[in-house]
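ugh ok fine here u go
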Amino acid sequence: MSQNRPESSLDKQSFRGAKIAIVQAQWNGFITSRLTKGAVETLRKYDIPDSDITVYEVPGAVELTFAGNQLIEHGAADAIIVFGCVVRGDTPHFDYVCQSVTQGVTELNTLSDIPVIFGVLTVENEQQAIDRVGGPAGHKGVEAAETALQMIAFTRSLD
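structure:
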């Protein structure tokens, strides 16, 4: 699969001192923990110290937006990354969960001055999820971390 992702040209000065919050769903934790690990390693690569990275856990994907909203209200971060993994099953539950978390994150981004990065995998099966945490489809945790830094830089450029 060809990736058309642009090259990252992150200037470390544009996000120096930034605080990043990561909210990880416990459901499908064998995937979400790998998303978080990739994000944390990437943030460290860009000189974000561990003291400026906070990881929170919630039960599932639907709870990600509540946690994101609480972090926004408490001014806990310059960017928030939410990680979840929803695997399609035999019932419409997949559709409801995906719609809920997508609308919730969109609303947080619309109403807040803090970017909330959507790192929720919505996949047909476990293999597709595994492919997206360091496999042939890239590493969505790494991409989310880089996106968070780009959005912090963008927000600061407006000041």
